[in-house]
Amino acid sequence: MDAFWIILTGSLVAVSCSMLGTFLVLRKMSMVGDAISHSVLPGIVIAFFIAGSMQSVWMLLGAGILGILTTFLIEFFHQKGKLQADASIGVTFTWLFALGVILVTYYAGNAHIDQDCILHGEIAYVPIDLIYTNSGNPIAPKAVIILTVVLILILLFIFLFYKELFITTFDSSFATAIGISTSKWHYALMSLVSLTTVASFESVGAILVVALLITPAASAYLVTNQLKSMLILSSVFGVFSSFLGYWLSYILDGSIAGAMVTVSGAIFACCYIITRFKK
Amino acid sequence: METLIEFFSFKYPNIKYVVFGAVLLSISSAVVGCFTFIKKKSLVGDVISHAVLPGICISFMISGSKDPFLLIIGAFISGWISIIVMDAIIQNTKIKEDAATGLSLSVFFGIGILLMTYIQHSGNASQSGLDTFLFGKAAALVGKDLVAFSIIAFIVLITVFAFYKEFKLISFDPNFARVIGLPIKKLEMVLTSVTVLAVVTGIQAVGVVLMAAMLITPAAAARFWTNRLSKMILLASVFGAFSGVSGAYISYSAPSMPTGPWMVMILSIIALFSFFFAPRKGIVVRQWRRFSIRRQLLEENLLKAFYRIGENSGEHYSVVAVDDIRLIRNFSSAQLVKGLRKLKTHGYVKKTSQNWLLTKEGFEKGKRITRLHRLWELYLTKYLRIAPDHVHEDADTIEHVITPELEARLEKLLEYPTSDPHSSEIPK
Asked: Whole-structure pTM over 0.90, yes or no?
């Protein structure tokens, strides 16, 4: 049963991340996703000390705010300060991350929180934290429920606003011309990225989130030219990484998240080789 | 104050190690960071710092020891491979730089985590401490680390110094460098090696995530103060060194505080200050300049309107009501209130109970703007053959920036005209 919950959790994260990652890769903003996944740390810490516990709602809120702030700061330094985009991303996320680490150490000792447990959340512990019915029967792990909600939100978002996302991604000047605000959709997408990041953090850790945001989408991008098939294919790759990754970690007795990332990297390598040979 | 004196007297050897270690690594990564910044590849540092992990693990698995030099060699090799992988993806596929960066970063790190947990679970007792590479341990530097740091920092600085001109060329203008026959591939290799070296040493002090900042932040901050590469490198090194010393001091005076994150925090504060307040390039200065240009435009447009009113009535020094100005040009109420107040403080207009009165200076200025406007309209119709009803907008823009010299030449070219294309008089 544990294996089932772990693979399910991995797959839920994989599908959410791959869907959003597809848009990040196409919009050439993959590194913003990476930045967000690090810079939400101070938000989580502050939320933790306001709420006094690892209450998921507060953490989501704190991290969500920080995620949007990160996106805003990167844009701000880039647009107003004329700082080149790569440096703008680098300065912003490392600064916020350093702030987060300082806050964590400042509060360390009087609370059960450290950067290790936030950033390197362990997917192996997912089945331990169960939610029970009133009569005391376990329903499902907490992470699974949260991640299912997040996935439904993302699917709804993409399904309802497919046209807007499509246009702003591929032709932002046309989008502006017909009255669709590129920056509004930019921020909407980034809010979802921060939401997903935080929801996944607790259970799978930051590495897996960043890897799953970028790698399956990039692999799918190599083998298809269509947005719809890219969305589906990247999700399939993601789920596949989750399955094979669990198996690999079982064999090697190593980190499950690390193994899932390794498998997604191997999938990318396969796609890369296939496209190279086709030429 | 006492801790400050105690700190800088270097009474305890450990303080000496931490300070020198922090300063050395900050300077070498700041110097290298300037080049990656100019190449617009700042995030390369982030990739390398994540990608060294598998190398460290493999080197430990092969050698079975934690000898820093062996680990650094492993780290160096896998850092290098990550860059090759990243460049291969960018060159051979349609995947762009950002995705290639993130991909190579996360996959290498994932493999590293898998290997590290594999080592940990395999029950090798001597593995403990490998994960200091993840978070850094600046405050726990010892003499042995310092020797390694100094050697590597020395290599980095000497290389940059020796190849300064070449590095500068391949960073700013690789095509030109190729044309004049520089061995670009080899130079790029040297530069990448130096970058990987700087990152590999830095990680041990500040950890994987914050290493990126040691490269990017000083360079980004320095860029706001200067346009010269040599000055930029010098400034970045100063910022880096300062952050090294103050980071070490903070964790000395408050022992629970981590050195690495504080170094990055100090660097970031310097950078944020530079972004906002640097002369010429700072955001505040830039916004102020925009604001004052907008104000100048408003003032000059108002004076032009005053002049037109005077022209229509034939009397330039009679009282003007706000509504009269509105008839000439559609100013918003806020613009009118602000602009008129400014004009009054500059002595261009006077206020009489409800209305406004042009002064001599105001009249002269309004006349000049009108003159420039009409001269330019005439120039456009006469020389560029633009229809008279299309020239107004352009003249409205340019009238604010024409210098007296240009004005004189325009007049001469147009043979001292007296009326513009709309047959309004060009005032003398």
From this structure: no
